[in-house]
Model the fold of this input.
Amino acid sequence: MYSRWTFALSLLAAVVAKSDAFVAPKHTQLASPVTQSTALHMGPPIDPNAPITEKVGEGTRKYRRTVFTHDDWVQFRSSDRFAKNLKTLFNSGIYRSVAKEITATVTVATVVCLWNAIAGGYQGLGGEMHDPIIPGLMKIGLPMNTFTILNSSLGLLLVFRTNKSYGRWDEARKFWGLNINHTRDLCRMGTAWYGKMSEYDTTGFMDSASVDQTGIDPVKRQEDLQRLSLCTWAFVRSMKRHLSPPDEDEEAFQMELRSRLPADQAEKIIAAAHRPNRALQDLSVAIEKLPMHFVRKNELNKNLSIFEDTLGGCERLLSSPIPLFYSRHTARFLSSWLLLLPLALYGEFGNSWNHIAMIPTTGFISVCLFGIEELATQLEEPFTILPMQGFCDKIGRWCDEIVSWAGQGQGEDVVEVNTREMMKLPL
Done:
């Protein structure tokens, strides 16, 4: 049990620590954090003056980095969601990306209609029938059974490709979820275990006793824990840059590192051949410098092993696509099936004027099936549609907040307070 004077000194130390909780060490010379906003409108940009590269293809991927809040979920579940989605049909980045393929199938359907009208006769606006424009030409067509037989095979190819692509996106998101969880865990343990060691921690190991740190310098504590927080953020930010296109993120990456980290550390990470590994090394050193028992340091280092696993898993997803021969066969099968489909649909639309209803039907089927294949292609590489910048910003803020909290030696012992309260209870 603490003496009265010891208890008073511990309270005084807590007050001093609290007053210095947000004072940065002088030698680090940290500037205000520089972060990027991830609050992008879902879908292509609303601005009509936006360049075409922002509306079609790769430029639209950054507008798919969604981070939902409660308000977003309410809007997502709204009863008028179908009307809203139909309203933005022609602004869809997916449909714009397959516009060339849809145009090709619609063109084939138009050519089939015109050819058969020329070769087999056509119906006038008044409903009267006219003879072939060029007698002797043969009408073209294919039996629908050919496409019916292939339906299940094409469906299996598309389902497998879409499921695998979504699985890759889901795996990448889970890797970043592990990063988020274990960065918080790392900073929480470092903050709670910093400094003042218990009697268990003074147990010697191979005749080398641990240092029993009975007092904590609040400035030194804040410096060490702030270094832990910054090194943790530097790793995830370096990992984000490692997985992003250079032309999109390099300039912002260097600016953020130089604004938050000490100059020497920032330059070493920027100059490294493998930046996440360099940042992880700095984090290992920061943990090693913390005054705590080696058993507790080992617990902190377990998080670093998990970081290495998530980094390796993301590198695997980035460098290893779904086998190319599978994707190519699916694309060839789908393209051939849709380009030849008008030859079978022609006979099915004999009740429409000159079979013309076949043309929009072909377009609609092409939009649906090419759209499914495009979804799989967009999901296959998940990192440029994941809100990784938002993850990094949140990790930085959360880690900074966690290390600002009081830990061991920063206030009255919680166990002793609870014990005293229990002693007051009647038996």
Observations:
- Confidence is low (pLDDT under 50) at residues 1-41, 205-210.
